[in-house]
């Protein structure tokens, strides 16, 4: 006799045996008791949370031969219940939409739906992974799904409800299956070990429950694997040797390294995670989920319902969440999401991931634009005040525009000072504000500028040929735009502007 895996041997057979879906089981049982069974249901949720098992239990409840009407407690021993549990009943048709995606498959379903069931009350169609149907197949199913014969019931199941058209969603009752908590999975594994006569350590079962990531089927598969290696004994040592460390434990260590600014340690933890066989984009997605949980704990508080984590880990995560502020979490999620998209099409994906981890670890060395501006403004004021205190007391006229002597940075010799042209007075304002003249400060009179005249090309060439002008142009650059003659000089002096 062939071995039956635990996932099939311990599949839920009644509503009460379904783990972690109390609200859904209560609703379906009440609908059967009150004779309010809908003609179409949609079960959606991640893998291994009981969608197909619930569909079979509902089919048994509607077609149990030991009762004269649908019952919320099917016997499980009649011919119909046993055949439905094995997926072999002629009146309960299970269709895998992944391999029956075409319009012709749905047309065949519609043509067979008009015939009454052979021995049961209802003809039930269970369509698994319904999101895989083509657009034409969905359109062909619409009318039958909206107004099926009175003896037909539809139970649709999917792991990607977002791909199901709205026209289908509006014709069925939708039930969202939750991920099973690690505590519930660990309790179920403990019951199964007792039933199998297997010695199991509680810590080992908790580790398996966390590795299952909310899927009871995955947990049973892992338990099967560990039991095979441990010869009917489940210990934490065997689990650690055979199975990888739970991703949330690794990521918790990685995030601690990022908070410490330890880039080398963070890359080492990343290498351990990649060595467990995770692809780069999956790793980025899992890390984003972990950081998102920490962000919610940081912003919404330790008791928020927006984070689904085990009670034993919540305290540790709350402490870790306090190590970053909300802006840091937003930055990390943004960087990792861009990284997740990039690694899919990059030939150097690992290098990109490592560079991003180093960037996050050293992000404390970078400052925001706001803080830099604040520092510059504060530093600028301080420098200005210091400059004023250390400035010489020699007073200069505010109207004096004569620049200091220009020094050559290469030779170190001083160039002759370049006299500046007198400033052209601007138009007088309507009202002149009087300013107090400091005592002891002599303000020389301002020379009256010479009458302006039109600058010719000859004036510009003559100014450009002056040695002092050439020297100033070599140092400061610029362009000669005006030429004026000093009252005491007969050679043109330039006024260069950039």
3D structure, described in words:
The chain is of the alpha/beta class and 498 residues long. It has four domains: 6-176, P-loop containing nucleotide triphosphate hydrolases (Rossmann fold, 3-Layer(aba) Sandwich); 182-242, Helicase, Ruva Protein, domain 3, CATH 1.10.8.60; 247-365, Zinc Finger, Delta Prime, domain 3, CATH 1.20.272.10; 457-482 and 492-497, no CATH class. 48% of the residues lie in helices and 9% in strands. The protein has 20 helices and nine strands. The strands form three sheets. It has a five-stranded parallel beta sheet, with helices on one face. Strand 8 and strand 9 form a beta hairpin. It starts with 5 loop residues before the first helix and ends with a strand. Mean pLDDT is 80; it is low at 381-437 and 488-498.
Topology:
Blueprint: H1 6-9, H2 22-33, E1 40-44, H3 51-63, H4 79-86, E2 92-96, H5 103-113, E3 123-128, H6 135-146, E4 152-158, H7 166-169, E5 173-176, H8 182-196, E6 199-200, H9 202-212, H10 216-230, E7 233-234, H11 236-242, H12 247-260, H13 263-274, H14 280-300, H15 311-321, H16 326-343, H17 349-361, H18 369-390, H19 457-464, H20 467-476, E8 479-485, E9 492-497
Parallel strand pairs: 1-4, 1-5, 2-3, 3-4, 6-7
Antiparallel strand pairs: 8-9
């Amino acid at each position: 006799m062939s071995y039956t895996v635990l996932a099939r041997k311990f599949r839920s057979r009644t509503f009460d045996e379904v783990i972690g879906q109390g609200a859904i089981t209560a609703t379906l049982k009440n609908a059967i008791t009150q004779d309010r069974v809908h003609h179409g249901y949609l079960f959606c949720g991640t893998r291994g949370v009981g969608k197909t098992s619930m569909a079979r239990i509902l089919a048994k409840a509607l077609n149990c031969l030991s009762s004269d009407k649908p019952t919320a407690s099917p016997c499980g021993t009649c011919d119909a219940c046993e055949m439905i549990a094995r997926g072999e009943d002629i009146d309960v048709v299970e269709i895998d939409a992944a391999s029956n995606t075409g319009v012709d498959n749905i047309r065949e379903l519609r043509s067979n739906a008009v015939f009454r069931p052979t021995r049961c009350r209802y003809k039930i169609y269970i369509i698994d992974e319904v999101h895989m149907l083509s657009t034409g197949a969905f359109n062909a199913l619409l009318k039958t799904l909206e107004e099926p014969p009175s003896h037909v019931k539809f139970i649709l199941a999917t792991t990607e409800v977002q791909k199901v058209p709205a026209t289908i969603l509006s014709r069925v009752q939708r039930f969202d299956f939750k991920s099973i908590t690690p505590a519930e999975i660990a309790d179920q594994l403990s019951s199964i070990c007792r039933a199998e006569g297997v010695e199991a350590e509680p810590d080992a079962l908790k580790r398996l429950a966390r590795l299952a990531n909310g899927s009871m089927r995955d947990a049973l598969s892992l338990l099967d694997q560990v039991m095979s290696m441990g010869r009917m004994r489940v210990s934490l040592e065997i689990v650690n040797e055979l199975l990888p460390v739970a991703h949330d434990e690794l990521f918790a260590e990685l995030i601690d390294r990022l908070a410490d600014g330890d880039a080398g340690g963070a890359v080492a933890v990343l290498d351990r995670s990649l060595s467990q066989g995770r692809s780069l984009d999956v790793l980025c997605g899992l890390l984003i989920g972990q950081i998102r949980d920490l962000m919610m704990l940081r912003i919404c508080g330790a008791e928020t319902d927006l984070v689904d984590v085990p009670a034993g880990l919540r305290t540790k995560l709350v402490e870790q969440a306090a190590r970053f502020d909300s802006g840091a979490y937003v930055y990390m999620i943004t960087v990792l999401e861009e990284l997740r998209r990039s690694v899919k099409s990059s030939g150097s994906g690992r290098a990109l991931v490592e560079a991003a981890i180093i960037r996050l670890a050293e992000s404390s060395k970078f400052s925001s634009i706001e803080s830099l501006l604040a520092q510059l403004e504060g530093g600028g004021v301080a420098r200005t005040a210091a400059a004023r205190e250390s400035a010489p007391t020699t007073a200069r006229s505010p109207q004096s525009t004569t620049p200091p002597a220009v020094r050559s940075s290469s030779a170190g010799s001083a160039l002759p000072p370049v006299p500046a042209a007198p400033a052209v007075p601007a138009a007088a304002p309507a009202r002149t504000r009087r300013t107090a003249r400091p005592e002891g400060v002599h303000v020389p009179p301002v020379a009256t500028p010479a009458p302006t005249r039109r600058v010719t090309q000859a004036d510009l060439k003559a100014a450009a040929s002056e040695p002092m002008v050439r020297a100033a142009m070599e140092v400061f650059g610029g362009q000669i735009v005006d030429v004026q003659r000093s009252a005491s000089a007969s050679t043109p002096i330039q006024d260069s502007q950039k």
